[in-house]
Amino acid sequence: MAAEKSRKSGRKKVLDCTQCENSEYWEQIKPFQDMVENSLTGICIIQDYRVVYLNPEQQRIAGSMPMLGKPLPFERVHPDDIERVREKYAMAWHEEIRNVDVDFRYMSWEKEGAPSQMKWIQSRGCIIQYHGREALLLNMIDITRARKLEQMISMEDKMASLGRMAAGLAHEIRNPLSGINIYLTMLKKLLDSGQGLHKVPDIITNIQEASLRIDAVIRRIMDFSKPSEPKFILCNINAPIEDAIRLAAVTLRKAGIVLTSNLAPGKGICRLDPQMIEQVLLNLITNAAEAMQGSGGDKHITISSSIEPGHVVVRVADSGPGIPPHLRGKIFDPFYTTKSDSTGIGLSLCHRIISDHKGYLRMDESTLGGADFIIELPRAHGRT
Predict the structure, then answer these.
(1) Rounded distance, CA 57 to CA 46, Å?
(2) Rounded Cα gap, residues 160 and 335, in angstroms
(3) β 233-236/269-272 pair status
(4) Is the pTM of this model over 0.90?
(5) DSSP helix/strand/coil, 319
(6) How far apart are CA 88 and CA 100, in angstroms?
(7) Positions in the chain short of pLDDT 50
(8) Cα–Cα distance measured from residue 302 to residue 219, given in angstroms and rounded to the nearest whole number
(9) How far apart are CA 343 and CA 322, in angstroms?
(10) Can you tell me the distance from the alpha carbon of 83 to that of 79, in angstroms, rounded to the nearest whole number?
(11) What pLDDT shows up at residue 5?
């Protein structure tokens, strides 16, 4: 009976190596001890705010300084991460949640005279029983190499985006610039010959329009690179929707597109910048109209709003060809476009504006057959 009780007690102390090597207890825990000692995950046990166990991988992650019996080395955590680490550690210790996950930067200890290294650590903590008392078990993985690879990939993506932007920008500017050069050549010929001077005002008008097109491209680039701060007010979500519909109505009618709206009758009050939300909606309407150019059959765009618990939903759907599934993950990327005459900034800027409003912008398939862009914005607290 006593031996059975001893075996049950031994199962809880899988890291207690103080027993005799020939005992039944040691035979039971030896496989677990080998797994812990040879694990590729750093394993650390903290009790009474002191480190009481480190496996070899954890010693490699933490560095060469002897850690056993030392207080927690919070001073080695990156200053930008230390408050978050302390908060997560307290949550784990007080068992507010079962498992506490946190990523942080840590300056490892090195041998005397050798430089220390900043490492990225992925950690998970939970409360266990160790030697009959509560302790905090930490599992840590050194993800420094993965983070560096992510940074390299991110840099490559940025360079690719920069290339796409440069190509789109060059295309958008080259066309009106070529037009300006042609009009200037015509203007010079007319002035030199002294004939056909009645055409001069029209040529000057065309030059001005081409110049304004170039200015519009540059302004879009500037808006994206340095967006203005939203000027938040309490506003009914239907107000900017109706303004966008009024502005787009004439253009859509000329293009043979039928626009219908179904706006929620209730007061969907949000804290938003009406002009920015109107800009987002105009961009989505314009994209929908451009997607239906050259397509046969009826052309429809529907705009709807609904009031949900805690947020409002705005949808812009069209009957166009839609977006292929393999492209849906890229459409909000900066400078990504499938159009030959676009810089690919519009949807990315819309996504940024909605994010600045603490909302979400996503895309789904429309019941009309095309794309359905869905905006979710938080409702103002205490408003109905």
Answers:
(1) 16
(2) 9
(3) antiparallel
(4) no
(5) coil
(6) 6
(7) 1-21, 384
(8) 29
(9) 20
(10) 8
(11) 41
Contact 301, 288 (CB under 8 A): yes
Cα end-to-end span (Å), the chain? 68
354 torsion bin: left (phi>0), alpha (psi -120 to 50), beta (else): alpha
**DSSP annotation of 197:** G
- Unique residue bearing structure tokens 């499938």: 338
Looking at the chain, list the stretches that DSSP marks H as alpha helix, in order from N- to C-terminal side: 2-12, 24-37, 56-62, 82-93, 144-193, 200-225, 238-254, 274-291, 346-356
* 276: its two tokens: 């920015």
CA–CA separation, 143 and 176 (whole Å): 50
DSSP β-bridge partners for residue 364: 372
Determine the Cα–Cα distance for residues 234 and 357; give it in Å rounded to an integer: 12
Are the beta carbons of 244 and 276 closer than 8 angstroms?
no
* Domains of the chain (ranges, CATH numbers): 39-142 (3.30.450.20), 148-225 (1.10.287), 233-378 (3.30.565.10)
Q: Give yes or no for a contact between 277 and 303, defined as CB atoms under 8 angstroms apart.
A: no
Give the H or E element holding residue 370. none
Name the token pair of 237: 């979500």
